[in-house]
Amino acid sequence: MAREAVLLSYRLGGTDGVSVEAVKWEWALRILGFTTRRVAGHICDAPRPDDVVVPGIAMDAPPGAADSHPLANALAGADLVVAENICSLPINVHASSAASDALARHGGRVSFHHHDLPWQRAELASVRGFPPDLPGALHVVVNDRSRAELAARGITAHTIRNTFDFDAPPGDRDPTRAELGIADDDVVVLQPTRAIPRKNVPGGVRFAEALAGLVPERTVVYWLTGPAEYGYDRTLARTMATTPLRVAHGRSARPADAYAAADVVVFPSTWEGFGNPVIESVVARRPLAVHRYPVLDEILAGLRVFSVEDPAAVAGFLQTPDLDVLDANREVARRDFSLADLPARLENAFESNGWTSW
């Protein structure tokens, strides 16, 4: 009989980093012989017949809506439950508590996939009890900083960094730019993020404005792909209304198309658990300007990128591109972040946790 794995989170099937990485883990689990299904407070993409939606564990579910009993029923029978951040970052503490209670009663194995941890966010630093130290559970983090912070709190974790498909077909540059009305010679500065405070959209706009001043012979277009969330709408509207740049806002048909259409990627985030656009831009062979958020150096080891504080260096690259740098970055990143290696890394983590048989 096939082993069954359930992916559990506040939401799944979206374009946020947790949802994106959950899809990759689901693929890897299937390679390892599991069947998979999803349990979440909200399913963002097309529903599957075996999806279970438990509205009480959605991010925005009201207090009192979360109940561990229906959640435990939804998880029943699974050989493995992978908790994707729902017990790591208590954005909805009632949902996190219900999930922790259900997992504590679960008869199968449990893995916590930690993308963020509560003390890493000022507004959640005072919340206690997360992640739960469940006996026998496997804890996986996406960076070594989080692994060390968990170790200091008595929890042993394994680092499995986010992974990327280096063999996927490239995006379509010309049709994507044509759809946005962007001319061949325009410079597209892509910020492939949602609009929330820590993504620092104003910083991305400032970088694009500074770059525009350095390439006056070309039109610079600032393109933000993701929506405003957590009440950021008004701040975003003000930022977009006050820039002299031409602005594009919205997603392309595929993420790869946005990278293909871009000339520069800007990633001005002040905090990330990982920061997928860093490696996505490398896969797409695009120059990247970053703000140095805390775990960036760990991810960048061996990669060459620009700083948002040095738009002149980016302008110089646009005038005289060094494609060898982009190719070298890609080869370095393939070694450390390839999706093809994820099944083996997961299997090694299972074995390290003593899960040698199912």
Structural overview:
By secondary structure, this protein is of the alpha/beta class. It folds into two domains: 3-163 and 338-352, Rossmann fold, CATH 3.40.50.2000; 173-337, Glycogen Phosphorylase B (Rossmann fold, 3-Layer(aba) Sandwich). 37% of the residues lie in helices and 17% in strands. The protein has 13 helices and 13 strands. The strands form two sheets. It has a seven-stranded parallel sheet with strand order 3-2-1-4-5-6-7, sandwiched between helices. A six-stranded parallel sheet has the order 10-9-8-11-12-13, with helices on both faces. β11 (264-267), α9 and β12 form a beta-alpha-beta unit. The mean pLDDT is 96.
Low-confidence stretches: none
Counting structural domains, the number is: 2
Helix share of residues? 25-40%
- Strand tally: 13
- Largest beta-sheet characterization: 7 strands, parallel
How many separate helices? 13
State the name of the first-level CATH class of the largest domain: Alpha Beta
Calculate the mean pLDDT score and round it: 96
